[in-house]
Specification:
InterPro entries: Aa-tRNA-synt_II (IPR004364), aa-tRNA-synth_II (IPR006195), aa-tRNA-synth_II/BPL/LPL (IPR045864), Asn-tRNA-ligase (IPR004522), Asp/Asn-tRNA-synth_IIb (IPR002312), NA-bd_OB-fold (IPR012340), NA-bd_OB_tRNA (IPR004365). With 462 residues, the chain is of the alpha+beta class. The protein is built from 14 helices and 16 strands. The strands form 3 sheets. The protein has an 8-stranded mixed beta sheet. Strands 1-2-3-5-4 form a 5-stranded mixed barrel. It has a 3-stranded antiparallel beta sheet with strand order 7-9-8, with no helix packed on it. Strand 2 and strand 3 form a beta hairpin. It binds 4-amino-1,4-dioxobutan-2-aminium adenosine-5'-monophosphate (4AD) and magnesium ion.
C-alpha cells in the first residue's frame, strides 16, 4: 500500500510495479468495458487516475455504477504516461469497494460556493480548496514548531481553564461544572461562583501569555501553541470564538528583538510551506488569489516596514475622507485603517509600534513619554493585524499602578506581580493568530474557511 503523494515522488522506480492505493472517488466515468476513476487519498493535492476494464477486474458492473464519494482500495500496475496530463496511472487488477456512497452525496463534481461548503463542514475536507487549506495549515504548524525548536525555545503548555483575564478585555467564556440554575445565588441575584467546581469564577483562556511569562522567567525562551477563546461579538471575516495562537516569550529581549523574531518566524514559515506544499499553493494561486505566490515570494525575501502609531495616525488623518471611522490620536485602528496602511502606503507587512496606553493591555511597558506603551502589531495586506505583542512592564511599581488604573483585581494577579519581585527582567513576546496566518498563506478571505470546524458568533455546528 502506498500514498498517492509517494506514488508521484517515487514514480521513476515504480513503472510496471504492483501497488495498492486507497482513497475516495472524486470522479468516475465509463464506456461499455472501460472506465476511469479519479481517486484522491488526501496525501497530496493530486489524485491518481485508475483505469478499470471488464475482464481485468471481476466486478466491472458493480464498479461502473459507483457514486462519487465512494471509498475504494485498488491494487494494480503503475503505468507511466509521460505524454498525458498526469505522469502516471494505475491499471486495476482488483478494485474493492470499502464503503459505497449514495447519489445524493453533497459534493458533486461542480464548483460549490464556500458558503454552501460551510454547511457540510464534515465533508468539505474532501474538496480541492479545503484539502489544500488544511494541508497548508498542517505544514505551517510544523514549520512553526521547527522554527522555535531549532532556536532553542522550550514549548510550554499553558492552561485553557483560568482564573485571570490575560488581556483585561472582559471577553471570556465562563466555565462551570454545575447546572447554573442549581447554583446558589447572592442577595443581588448573581450566581455565587464560589460554590462552583473550582471554588471561584473560571473562564476559558484568551491568551497563554501571562503563564508563558512565568515559564520564560525560568527557561529564557519559550513558546506556546494552542487554542484560545474569545467571546467577542464581532461578525467579521477574521474573528473566531475559538482560534489557535502561537505566543513566544523571551527574557532579556526588548521590542526590537521582538520584531526581529516575528519577521524571522513569518519568513521562515512562508519558505517552509512553499517548499512542502507547492501543488496546494499553486491551486490557491490559480483559483483563490492570483497574486498569492508573487506576494509570498516577495515577503519571504524582504524586510518588513516599521512605523510608530503616532506617525501612522498622521498618515491616516490626511485620508480620513475615505474611511467609515475617522481617526485621531488615541483612536484604536479599525481593519479599514490597518489595511490602508499595509496595502496602500507600505505595500508590504508593517510593524506599528508605540500605541497609546489607553487602547492597549495593562501589561505593556510604559514608554518614557508616559503616554504610549512599547506595543507592536504586525499588519499584512489583505487581512490587517496578524500579530499583537509588546515589551512587558517589568517594573513592579509601574505595573501595580497600571493594574489599578485599568480597574483590574490586583489580588488575581499576585503571582504575576511576583515575577517582578523575584528576579524580574526585561522581556518581550507576541501572539500570532494562527488562522490569520493560514489566511495569509492561502489567500482565503474568511476565517471560517481555514479552520476545519469553525466556531463563530451564532454558529457552532458539528
Ligand atoms: O492582539 P491579541 O489580543 O494579543 C494577545 O492576546 C497577547 N496576549 C499576545 C502576546 O503578546 N502574547 O491577539 C494576538 C493575535 C492577533 O494579532 C490576531 O492575529 C489573533 O491573535 N486574534 C484572533 N484571531 C482570530 N479570531 C479572534 N477573535 C482573534 N483575536 C485575536
Ligand atoms: Mg491585538
Amino acid at each position: 500500500k502506498i500514498d498517492i503523494a509517494d506514488l508521484y515522488r517515487k514514480s521513476g522506480t515504480l513503472e510496471g510495479k504492483t501497488v495498492t492505493v486507497c482513497g475516495w472517488v472524486r470522479t468516475i466515468r465509463d464506456s461499455k468495458a472501460l472506465g476511469f476513476i479519479d481517486l484522491n487519498d488526501g496525501s497530496g493535492f493530486k489524485g491518481v487516475q485508475i483505469v478499470f476494464e471488464d475482464g481485468k477486474i471481476g466486478n466491472y458492473k458493480e464498479v461502473a455504477r459507483l457514486n462519487v464519494g465512494t471509498a475504494v482500495s485498488v491494487t494494480g500496475t503503475v503505468v507511466l504516461t509521460p505524454q498525458a496530463k498526469q505522469p502516471l496511472e494505475i491499471h486495476a487488477a482488483e478494485l474493492c469497494v470499502e464503503g459505497a456512497s449514495t447519489p445524493d452525496y453533497p459534493l458533486q463534481k461542480k464548483r460549490h460556493s464556500l458558503e454552501y461548503l460551510r454547511t457540510v463542514a464534515h465533508l468539505r475536507p474532501r474538496t480541492n480548496t479545503f484539502s489544500a487549506a488544511f494541508r497548508i495549515r498542517s505544514a505551517a504548524a510544523y514549520a512553526i514548531h521547527t522554527f522555535f525548536q531549532e532556536r532553542g525555545f522550550v514549548y510550554v503548555h499553558t492552561p485553557l481553564i483560568t482564573g485571570s483575564d490575560a488581556e483585561g478585555a472582559g471577553e471570556m467564556f465562563t466555565v462551570t461544572a454545575f447546572d447554573l440554575d442549581r447554583l446558589p445565588r447572592r442577595e443581588n441575584g448573581a450566581v455565587d461562583f464560589s460554590k462552583d467546581f473550582f471554588g471561584g469564577h473560571t473562564s476559558l483562556t484568551v491568551s497563554g501569555q501571562l503563564e508563558a511569562e512565568c515559564m520564560a522567567m525560568a527557561f529564557g525562551k519559550v513558546y506556546t501553541f494552542g487554542p484560545t477563546f474569545r467571546a467577542e461579538r464581532s461578525y467579521t471575516q477574521r474573528h473566531a470564538a475559538e482560534f489557535w495562537m502561537i505566543e513566544p516569550e523571551v527574557a532579556f529581549a526588548d521590542l526590537d528583538d521582538n520584531m526581529a523574531l516575528a519577521q524571522d518566524m513569518i519568513r521562515s514559515v512562508i519558505r517552509a510551506v512553499m517548499e512542502k506544499c507547492p501543488d496546494d499553493l499553486a491551486f490557491c494561486n490559480q483559483f483563490i488569489d492570483k497574486g498569492l505566490l508573487d506576494r509570498l515570494n516577495h515577503v519571504a525575501n524582504s524586510d518588513f516596514a516599521r512605523v510608530t502609531y503616532s506617525d501612522a495616525i498622521e498618515i491616516l488623518k490626511k485620508e480620513n475622507g475615505r474611511f467609515d471611522y475617522q481617526v485621531e490620536w488615541g483612536s484604536d485602528l479599525q481593519t479599514e485603517h490597518e489595511r490602508y496602511l499595509t496595502e496602500q502606503v507600505f505595500k508590504k507587512p508593517v510593524f506599528v509600534t508605540d500605541y497609546p496606553k489607553e487602547i492597549k493591555a495593562f501589561y505593556m511597558r510604559l514608554n518614557d513619554d508616559g503616554k504610549t506603551v512599547a506595543a507592536v502589531d504586525l499588519l499584512v495586506p489583505g487581512i490587517g493585524e496578524i500579530i499583537g505583542g509588546s515589551q512587558r512592564e517589568e517594573r513592579l511599581d509601574v505595573l501595580e499602578r497600571r493594574l489599578r488604573e485599568t480597574g483590574m483585581n490586583e489580588d488575581a494577579y499576585r503571582w504575576y506581580l511576583d515575577l517582578r519581585r523575584y528576579g524580574g527582567a526585561k522581556h518581550s513576546g507576541y501572539g500570532l493568530g494562527f488562522e490569520r496566518l493560514v489566511m495569509y498563506l492561502t489567500g482565503i478571505s474568511n476565517i471560517r474557511d481555514v479552520i476545519p470546524f469553525p466556531r463563530t458568533t451564532g454558529s457552532a455546528e458539528f
